[in-house]
Amino acid sequence: MSTEAKISAHWGKGGLADAILAALEAAGLDPKHLTPDDLAPLDHLHGRGVDATRELLEVLSPDRETHLLDIGSGIGGPARLAASIHGASVTGIDLTQEFCDVADMLTERTGLGDRVTFRQGSALDLPFEDASFDGAYSQNVSMNIADKDTFYAEAFRVVRPGGLFAAAEYAEGPGGAPVFPVPWALVPEHSHLMKPDALRQTIEASGFEILEFIDQTEAMIDSYERARAKLAAEGPPVLSAQVLLGDDGPERMKNSARCVEERRTIPVQVVCRRN
Ligand SMILES: C[S@@+](CC[C@H](N)C(=O)[O-])C[C@H]1O[C@@H](n2cnc3c(N)ncnc32)[C@H](O)[C@@H]1O
Predict the structure, then answer these.
(1) Helix, strand or coil for residue 160?
(2) pLDDT tens digits for 167-222?
(3) For residue 12, which atom of ligand 1 is closest to its CA?
(4) Sign of torsion over alpha carbons 130, 135, 139, 140
(5) Rounded distance, CA 67 to CA 263, Å?
(6) Architecture of the domain spanning 3-273
(7) d(CA 223, CA 213)
(8) Rounded distance, CA 69 to CA 48, Å?
(9) Ligand 1 center to residue 74 CA distance, Å?
(10) Residues with CB under 6 A from ligand 1
(11) Is 129 exposed, middle or buried (0-12, 13-18, 19+ CB in 10 A)?
């Protein structure tokens, strides 16, 4: 099995559409008529969820004329938010066919199909013309990618001159190796993190100018503490990204938090510009 097939199999386990629709019904929602707010607890598959997406989109500040690319778009929560809040058009690309199918289904049910589309493909070989997007973003994707030179070079290629690329990902921290399994990898072989300085160099070598490189450790730890307090007070939420992770989801999420709290991983948000 190729590396990409293994990554795709890691994320797409089958049965996801039914599991999500059942969870939405259990939460008292009408699965035929959904809003991005209804879906927000489960369709932002990264640390700090929808709050992190809102912040990242504010940096890109798209409007109705803007066409964005979401690289590694998952089940489409961030793309739908960009369309509903900012009016942007968004194309999402993701390696995992099942995620693209679920993203399409949820987008139709939120009535955003005229502005948001998804297709299956690899971040390392984007099927788009040079300079074809006004901007791009990618959240928690490159940890699955060893060839970060190509990942950033491809993002640079498809963004128009003057356009921004914002990426949220984890860098390697000083606290020791990650504790596995984490959400993006069950074993070390599927996890590819770089030290912050090496990551900066890789991004700059692609041609981008780095405008911001923010360590989000404190914000992430705050969000874990709030989530733990809520869990203790209210019990497990009916809707959460756990629906996508399966039975070992709680352990993977717990390890991800531990990695940040022990400085094994550093959540970073990078904003860069193609000049
Ligand atoms: C943690 S999920 C994040 C999804 C989405 N960005 C979000 O934040 O909601 C990681 C996603 O990256 C995708 N992915 C991993 N490697 C990829 C690659 N080489 N090309 C495209 N997508 C990839 C996976 O299929 C998965 O959907």
Answers:
(1) strand
(2) 999 999 999 999 999 999 999 999 999 999 999 999 999 999 999 999 999 999 99
(3) 25
(4) positive
(5) 36
(6) 3-Layer(aba) Sandwich (3.40)
(7) 20
(8) 21
(9) 5
(10) 7, 11, 44-46, 72-74, 77-78, 94-96, 99, 122-124, 139-141, 144-145, 184
(11) exposed
Q: How far apart are CA 1 and CA 234, in angstroms?
A: 43
Q: Could you read off the pLDDT of 43-97 as tens digits, one per residue?
A: 999 999 999 999 999 999 999 999 999 999 999 999 999 999 999 999 999 999 9
Task: Determine the Cα angle at 98 with ends 96 and 101, to 5°.
Answer: 115
Report the alpha-carbon distance of residue 98 to residue 12 in Å, rounded: 6
- For the CA of 138, the closest atom of ligand 1 is 6
User: What's this model's pTM, rounded to 2 decimal places?
Assistant: 0.97
Residue 9: what are its φ and ψ, rounded to 5°? -70, -30
Within 74-195, residue ranges assigned H as helices are 77-86, 97-109, 148-158
Instruction: Supply φ then ψ for residue 144, to 5 degrees.
Output: -90, 0
β-bridge mates for residue 139, sequence order? 168
Q: Can you read off the two tokens belonging to residue 84?
A: 């509903």
Token couple for 55 = 């912040």
Measured from the Cα of 46, ligand 1's closest atom is 8
Q: Whose CA is nearest to atom 10 of ligand 1?
A: 141
Q: Where are the alpha helices (DSSP H) in the chain?
A: 3-11, 16-26, 36-39, 49-60, 77-86, 97-109, 148-158, 196-205, 217-234, 242-245, 249-261
Residues in the chain: 275
